[in-house]
Design goal:
By secondary structure, the protein is mainly α. Strands 1-2-3 form a three-stranded antiparallel sheet. A hairpin with a 7-residue loop joins strand 1 and strand 2. Helix 5 runs antiparallel to helix 8, helix 6 crosses helix 11 and helix 13 packs across helix 14.
Length: 360
């Protein structure tokens, strides 16, 4: 057999490309330069980040360990950034914000923005610059997506936010207790999503995966590789450039069912007078398109202002604005705990610790 055919046969027998092929991959070199990675992070490690555990079961050649480290780092940096910047956010909104920053959908979009392509079938003869994983059957993916739709953070957010601390209907496996914010914090994952059905065996979990999960593990593995090869400060910089720099309007994540009642109870808890709605200005009351501007006041201070085509609509919008103004409070000199670590650490300044959410 000719030498080139012998080499191809050896490569086809491997579950993933050998590390010796990483230096010859133009795609891998381009990805390394595109992400502005340090020369101290070798392309062999970046090639390992592109090999999912479903493509190569050997953890020494897959991104399993790196993705575990990167996932924990993403969770830690994201949680401290959100909580320290918005200390009064309800727990359900914190879960939704974390999912928007480092959730599977976001990490999949980041993978596409980085220009990473998925291979049709993993193997040793594949270019190391492709993301390699064994994909699940399309029918199984659709069935799983239908099951996750009811347990997703978005569904939980819509059910829990109208009363800020609302109890969701129990699932069939949790008939003995209600699923609220406390159970989301203790029992569920870092995004407040249900973990039911995730207790699969290692053999089943390593058989195949979805494209979304494979992309998420790749981005997490890159974070873990940066942390191992460049240190904590480089990992924090990488997180700020690729994750925290993405614009997220947290104000649009709120959904209130009865904002006027919620505002009344909030004022009672804080020792303020009951809020009173007053008309600030109006125009076209007798026309087909009137506009009313209503303000909500307590103790002679305006808490919020809203505009609507009716007095009731303007009053409700003013109450929503007042609630958002309370929950979206952000300290000017907020400091996260990770800034007080390392040789060049800053002097720690304790942040605001809110009294907690009020139960309606």
């Amino acid at each position: 057999m000719p030498p080139h055919l012998q080499k191809e046969a050896r490569l086809r027998a491997l579950p993933s490309p050998p590390l010796s092929e990483a230096r010859r991959s133009a795609k891998l070199a381009a990805l390394h330069a595109r992400l502005s990675l340090s020369p101290r992070l070798p392309v062999e490690t970046l090639a390992r980040c592109l090999v999912d555990g479903t493509a190569d079961p050997n953890p020494d050649f897959s991104n399993t360990s790196l993705s575990t480290l990167g996932r924990d780092l993403y969770r830690y940096y994201t949680a401290e950034a959100i909580i320290c910047r918005y200390p009064r956010l309800p727990t359900a909104v914190v879960f939704a914000a974390m999912n928007a920053y480092v959730g599977p959908n976001t990490l999949t979009q980041i993978t596409k923005e980085w220009g990473v392509e998925l291979v049709a079938e993993p193997g040793g003869e594949v270019d190391p610059g492709y993301l390699q994983c064994k994909r699940e059957d399309s029918m199984l993916v659709r069935q799983r997506s239908k099951k996750k739709s009811s347990d997703s953070p978005g569904a939980t957010l819509k059910e829990s936010l109208p009363r800020i601390v609302g109890l969701n209907p129990p699932t069939p496996a949790r008939q003995s207790w209600s699923r609220g914010v406390s159970s989301m914090t203790v029992q569920d994952d870092e995004f407040g999503g249900s973990t039911e059905g995730n207790g699969q065996s290692l053999k089943t979990a390593a058989a195949a995966t979805t494209v979304e999960d494979a992309c998420a593990r790749f981005v997490q593995a890159v974070m873990g590789a940066v942390y191992l090869h460049r240190g904590k400060q480089a990992a924090k910089t990488f997180f700020k450039e690729h994750i925290l720099s993405r614009h997220l309007d947290i104000g649009k994540m709120f959904e209130f069912k009865e904002p006027t009642r919620d505002l009344t109870r909030l004022c009672a808890r804080e020792g303020l007078d009951s809020p009173v709605a007053r008309i600030l200005s109006e125009t076209g009351r007798l026309s087909r398109h009137p506009v009313f501007i209503v303000g909500v006041f307590a103790d002679r201070e305006k808490l919020g202002e809203g505009t609507g085509s009716s007095l009731n609509e303007a009053r409700v919008r003013a109450a929503v604005g007042a609630l958002k103004g309370w929950y979206l409070y952000s300290p000017l000199d907020a400091m996260v705990p990770s800034e007080a670590e390392g040789p060049h650490a800053k002097q720690w300044k304790p942040g605001l610790i809110d009294i907690g959410e009020f139960i309606c």
